Predict the structure.
Amino acid sequence: MVARDLIVVLFLSCKVTVGICAYNEGKNIGKLLQNVLKQQSLCLDSEVIVVCSGCTDNTADIVNKYAALDARVKPYYEKERKGKASAINYISAHAVGDAIVFISADTLPSKGGFAKMLAKLWQTNTGLVCGNPTPINTSKSMVGRIVQVLWRFHGHVFEELNDAGLAKHASEAFVVRRELVEQMPSETVNDDAYIAVNVKKKGWLIKFCPDAQISICGPKTFKEYFQQRRRVVFGHFQIKKMTGESPQYLMQMLPSQPVRTAKLVLWLSTKCDPFTLLTFLVAESLVNAAALFDFGFGKTHFQWTTLPSTKTVIP
């Protein structure tokens, strides 16, 4: 109880900016705003900046409704879709909080998740804390199983690197000290990784908060899985070119940390059946090859195509 009370005190005494980037998120944005305003114990002088970027659905109308009911909600509208990096830059430039919580518009954090991440943020030398993305996809299909494998592996890798002080990537929801967030190039694909790598380069630690679960919906078709992962891995190559550092992911870790990578794959083999593991590894190999091709031939992904199956309403 004492630890829980300390978390509440820390959170309530901290002015927080919540940053949400939205493009045609009418299905989920209302539930997310309701969650942020009612279940995350934001203090009254905190703010929720929602960037609606070129939306053609009812996203702006829903955000307007919440802004009329709660002054903490501060909408910003872009007439044309400029990409997520542009929206992130607007949020970081206008944030007044001591810390910024960045969260994707198609996710849903667990009750009190922000406070748990924030409590870790104020630990010595910690500059950024990530939540724990948890897919709602079922295991009835192969795609659902490899989505579960992907995020289970993501969490395990993060925990191991977290304990070793080596983490330098982020996730669907994270909190960062405001002064550590820099403006990023508008063509940046993986905004979270860009911020995390730069925080790490400045000498700060990046921590993982497994108790702060963030519900997400992964792709439900192989085509969309391939599209999403191709974009993300392309973004990792891009971050390496921009910053000189790579976020940790399986294929990047293989040549630089072969023993650790082998142990991680061995751990993964105990968490799923052999056919699912093989499918996952083959899919990731193809994804990396396609992303490398895109990167080599100058293709860009900063204004990516929305994947319909990932926009399922999160319960």
Remarks:
- The longest helix spans residues 142-164.
- The chain has two domains: 15-111, 123-309.
- DSSP finds eleven helices and eight strands in the chain.
- The CA atoms of residues 49 and 74 lie 5 Å apart.
